[in-house]
Design goal:
By secondary structure, this protein is an alpha/beta fold. It contains 4 helices and 8 strands, in the order H-H-E-E-E-H-E-H-E-E-E-E. Bound molecules: cobalt (II) ion (CO).
Length: about 170
């Protein structure tokens, strides 16, 4: 990044030497370059902050059955499908349920909600956080505040997946 800025400055200097540039034009150019640099830096800082990596594969598995996090903290869960299969046949999502929600009943209902990305519209009050459904090679993320201390169920709500694809989020 610094190198390209130096080259830009050098190019401007050459133009000035040739006598076709005023001091005012030079300042405008420098301001424009700064504006393009700043957002890129801010973005990379936001991604690193409190991120948890969760993966799922073509064998219908999460790579973690237990996720330990700090109660009350805001986290970003980055969810990656490491397989190759299309989301229509091996779709995965991450759904975190509130305490006391019947996992089996929720799963049955979610399987029928294909038009809503397997998130039933009348169950949203039972969900603490969820991602969209992704296919092989895709990555998505969800930002949420970890609930109060306790153990919470998470699952993939794609039809028939929760039998294998489920785990516990432990807020400590
Ligand atoms: Co799945």
């Amino acid at each position: 990044m610094r190198k390209s800025l130096n080259i830009t400055a050098l190019a401007l200097a050459v133009v000035c030497v040739l006598g076709s540039c005023s001091g005012g034009q030079n300042e405008n150019k420098a301001t424009a370059v700064d504006n393009t640099v700043e957002p890129a830096v801010a973005k990379s800082e936001a991604v690193d902050e409190n991120a948890i990596q969760l993966e799922a594969n073509d064998q219908m598995q999460f790579n973690m059955q237990e996720i330990k996090v700090k109660a009350g903290e805001e986290i970003t869960l980055v969810f990656k499908h490491t397989g190759k299969m299309d989301k229509s046949i091996m779709g995965h999502n991450f759904v975190l349920l509130k305490k006391g929600v019947d996992l089996a009943a929720f799963t049955q209902k979610a399987a029928l909600a294909k038009d809503h990305d397997y998130i039933p519209a009348d169950e949203t009050s039972n969900i603490l956080a969820h991602t969209k459904v992704i296919g092989g090679g895709e990555t998505t993320s969800v930002k949420f505040t970890v609930p109060a201390q306790g153990t919470y169920d998470f699952l993939c709500s794609f039809p028939a997946h929760a039998a294998l694809m489920k785990g516990k989020l432990i807020a400590e």
